Sequence to fold (273 residues):
Amino acid sequence: MIFNIFEMFSYKFMVYAFVVGGAISICAALLGVSMVLKKNSMIGDGLSHVGFGAAAIASALNWAPLALAMPLVILAAVLILKLTEKNKIHGDAAIGIIAASSLAIGYTVIHTQGTNVDIEGYLYGSILGITEEELILSVVLSIIVIGTFIVLYNKIFALTFDETFFKSTSKHSEFYSIIISILCALTVVIGMKVMGALLISSLIIFPTVSARQIFKTYKSVIISSVIISILCCFLGLILNYYIDTPAGSIIVIINLVVLILCILIGKIRKRII
Fold:
């Protein structure tokens, strides 16, 4: 079995898959804690639909999908934040409007392009088809997301648990909110290649919800969610290689199984205590 695992890493596409998969798992888990605790976790789903629409348009224009998706998804993230802050549209409604519109535009563009466009790759991910350029871009963006999260750890903590108080005591609260939205947008853009537009939000939601069933402090939830996210991603890639399952789908299923196990462990722990 050890020999087979080493054999798996002899293929360049598998090495790329593990590097990008691990990077996005860390980014999604870090931001997922804040998003879930603030009840904004579905913003990832909305932004992924924007990314899908952007990737479809880029494909029609023969542009690099990530190059167009990145600025558009960032713009959408800031737009959702502004609409929510001004109370013009409730957060869930703003996400729904942007998500549905982007998905409709993307699907229309892909449909007009015929069968040459890989719609399943956009919707469900195509991690085994990562190019060297996409690998480099994903790693660079991941380093930016992780580094910014570490630097702004205290600010993100304050915004997560007492946003009203933080805004009343900080002159730059809006700036930090925008930064968090941009980090979320970058995470979604990176993760689209791994999970696709329909499944990327699972990487943001599942690990945090699973970790919260057992751990209670903010730091312990962050650390455990990162570990859970990475393990689920790597296990999904291994299963994808050996039994030819869709990488994105099997990663979500593994996360679901882990969540169920964590819920059971949490209930047993409460009864023992």
